[in-house]
Amino acid sequence: MKLFDVYPVNNIAITRALGSYVWDENGEQYLDMYGGHAVISIGHTHPHWVKRIKDQLEKIAFYSNSIVIPIQQQLADKLAQVSGKDDYQLFLCNSGAEANENALKLASFHTGRKKIISFSKAFHGRTSLAVAATDNPFIIAPVNETDNIIFLPFNDEQALSKCFQANGDLIAAVIIEGIQGVGGINIATDSFLQLIRRLCDDYVAVYIADSVQCGYGRSGQFFAHDAAGVQADIYSMAKGMGNGFPIGGILIAPHIKPKHFMLGTTFGGNHLACAAALAVLEVIEQENLISMAKQRGMYIMNKLKSIEGIVNVRGKGLMIGFDVPENLKELKKKLLEDHNVFTGEAKPNVIRLLPSLALSRKQADEFLDALRESIAELQQNN
Ligand SMILES: Cc1ncc(COP(=O)(O)O)c(C=O)c1O
Known about the structure:
The protein is an alpha/beta fold. Helices cover about 35% and strands about 20% of the residues. The protein contains eleven helices and 17 strands. The strands form four sheets. The chain has a seven-stranded mixed β-sheet, sandwiched between helices. The protein has a four-stranded mixed β-sheet with strand order 1-2-3-15. A four-stranded antiparallel β-sheet has the order 13-14-17-16. A hairpin with a 5-residue loop joins β8 and β9 (about 185). α2 packs antiparallel against α8 (about 270-285) and α3 (about 70-85) runs parallel beside α8. The radius of gyration is 21 Å and the shape is globular. Pyridoxal-5'-phosphate binds near residues 96, 97, 124, 177 and 238. Pyridoxal-5'-phosphate binds next to α4.
């Protein structure tokens, strides 16, 4: 049987990983500045995470949500403590798209309205409503097309205010990434997020903070939206939440009340996933990874700004992007093939860095050296 060919892939099979390094089947070592697409938060195969999963596996891996699952409450308590959102409610699911799908659905149930505001270059996932709110017509199937989504320019306060003035009583939710990931590391301004908060209050709409990529400490704060001093009504989470074990969730503000059967899931919040997610939060806390991400990110960004050839260095914490000019368009490939460094990208010309929050200073330097050398080599060949 053939695999359904959904992505162009690098012809490398990774068979082992530890911290910020991965190894292929021939024992070749790579530095992972991509974090398996922002998923690796505490580091690959962190011993505490491995132990918690193993211990849980020997007890019970799964039982349905028709019974009490105490480890879900332990996870909720730890999440309240580490995120500071102690009066929020937690709904658990399995992925980022599912988290956003549930967030959007809940906003519509809560308000009784249908319209959703989303922004240019947004990416919210591939399920029906999440993909409809994603600014990429190529991945929206005809069946997902809907006129319930209103796309506005990112960070355009005037356009947002006008839209609420015209349609305010129809709007169920505004969904926004604190830092756009797939869109190319674009930071929502504090004043834009503050305006979203005010308008959602004025028009009784739901503010959804898509924190699937920029959340869980990656930006140097638990949620990137925290930097603006605002509280969203719903935070969606996934990627870093399980450090590679599939789990997602939404944090729901107290004024949004649950009704039985409004949301539901078979696998969401299973014992094994909760054990992985608890381990992640314990390590984030014990190893002080949120402030580490902030410091390490500032260090990398300052160094990047002094490297000639790359431009428009931007980001927060360990969510960093820079533009690669045409003469260096082979940079990502060169970093991987000649210097064994994985990085991420965003079309058309952005390199994205999304390493583990536990990336060491030495590893950051190793990356910066590889980058400088790759640029010099490419410039020589031009
Ligand atoms: C901001 C954001 N939201 C949602 C998603 C979808 O997450 P998943 O692939 O886990 O469904 C992603 C994935 O890249 C993302 O970056």
